[in-house]
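Long-time lurker, first post. I've been practising inverse folding by hand and with some scripts of my own, and I keep getting stuck on stretches where the structure tokens seem ambiguous. Below is the full token string for one chain I'm working on. Before anyone asks, I'm not after the true native sequence, just a reasonable design that respects the backbone. If someone could post their per-position residues I'd love to compare against what I wrote down in my notebook.
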């Protein structure tokens, strides 16, 4: 960590009095936490995403496992705009509150995901009640209300925000999303960062995206970061979603991106890590969630069980990734998995629905896989 200690970072903006109070709980939860997060305690935070299912059904078994192995959590879905504000002015806090309470109770670093994104947006966000498109001023107004209300509710409890998600297209500069098209340019991005910083100056603010190893995307973002630095746009970190596979991406490109963003003063977060073991459908390796390829049995070869040789490749891939993360531990604040066990991974349904994937560290029975033990062994 740079100017603040890892401990302070974990606690975010907690006051000294609150800190003293929390100390007893912290000792308690540190003793309970004997898994991955404590193994990597001197390196970076180790996080997981919490699903709506876990929150809604109060899955205690899974929650106990999460509290043991992880010290950071991200909201997989419950804070996305379509879920937390399903209609303009109508807020649904149920699952988001449970998510934040869980993290607070277990003394975890809490990540809010995501304030501004083109996906999972409510149907009425970019239009008036009569269906006509809103203009730029109305867009800014709605964005401000959304960010102000969401950040305001959890101020002092959520330490890191994915402020803007996926605003850059592969090799094509800014994504021509409804945000961009309504605004007429990409100013909404810096506007969101400035507002988030104003609302909570102690929050750590991230730009998050997929395929961040892509040299074209990297070059574009580096230019944006230089420009933001020059003009004082408050951005603190870059999130590499890290939806990777057994053979992609080339880890040298991944490393080049870690170095390039860090060279611009950014803290690095691997925000949505998992390793897809299934055949790549039509050479697609992106994470744009609207993608949906047709199912075929050929694309779902391990429906019954994962063969030993693929399990070994999965383990080896995780070891290579964590060796890279450890090499850059001075730049990396957090490595978060996109889910805890294979049964809940979005990769069972993306980019092809109805497959059986094995991308995480725990299997469908919540048992740690060989990859888990290999990552623990790396730290012994
Ligand atoms: C995914 C969730 O995991 C799914 O449950 C949901 O149906 C679609 O979104 N990039 C992101 C995440 O930033 O929010 C996405 O999460 C995966 C891609």
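-- Answer (accepted) --
I ran through it position by position. Result:
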């Amino acid at each position: 960590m740079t100017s603040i200690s890892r401990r302070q970072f974990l606690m975010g903006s907690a006051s000294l009095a609150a800190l003293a109070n929390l100390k007893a709980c912290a000792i308690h939860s540190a003793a309970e936490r004997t898994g991955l997060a404590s193994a990597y305690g001197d390196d970076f935070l180790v996080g997981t995403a919490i699903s709506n299912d876990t929150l809604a059904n109060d899955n205690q078994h899974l929650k106990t496992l999460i509290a043991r192995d992880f010290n950071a959590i991200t909201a997989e879905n419950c804070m996305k705009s379509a879920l937390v504000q399903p209609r303009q002015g109508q807020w649904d806090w149920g699952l988001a509150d449970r998510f934040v309470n869980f993290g607070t109770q277990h003394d975890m670093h809490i990540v809010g995901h995501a304030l501004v994104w083109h996906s999972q947006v409510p149907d009425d966000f970019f239009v008036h009640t009569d269906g006509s498109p809103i203009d730029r001023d109305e867009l800014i107004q709605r964005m401000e209300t959304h960010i102000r209300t969401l950040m305001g509710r959890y101020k002092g409890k959520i330490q890191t925000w994915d402020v803007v998600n996926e605003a850059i297209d592969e090799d094509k500069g800014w994504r021509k999303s409804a945000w961009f098209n309504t605004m007429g340019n990409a100013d909404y991005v810096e506007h969101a960062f400035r507002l988030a910083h104003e609302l909570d100056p102690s929050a750590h603010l991230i730009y998050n995206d997929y395929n961040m190893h892509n040299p074209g995307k990297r070059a574009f973002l580096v230019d944006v970061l230089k420009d933001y630095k020059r003009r004082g746009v408050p951005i603190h970190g870059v999130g590499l979603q890290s939806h990777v596979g057994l053979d992609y991406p080339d880890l040298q490109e991944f490393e080049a991106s870690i170095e390039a963003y860090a060279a611009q003063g950014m803290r690095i977060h691997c925000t949505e890590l998992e390793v897809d073991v299934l055949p790549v459908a039509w050479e697609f390796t992106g994470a744009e969630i609207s993608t949906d390829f047709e199912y075929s049995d050929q694309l779902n070869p391990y429906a019954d069980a994962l063969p030993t040789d693929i399990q070994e490749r999965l383990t080896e891939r995780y070891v290579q990734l964590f060796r890279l993360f450890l090499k850059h531990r001075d730049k990396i604040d957090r490595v978060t998995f996109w889910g805890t066990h294979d049964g809940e991974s979005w990769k069972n349904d993306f980019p092809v629905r109805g497959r059986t994937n094995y991308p995480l560290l725990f299997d469908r029975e919540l048992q740690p896989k060989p990859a888990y033990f290999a990552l623990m062994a790396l730290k012994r």
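A couple of notes from the structure itself: The chain is about 40% helix and 15% strand. The chain has one domain: 6-377. Happy to go over any region you disagree with.
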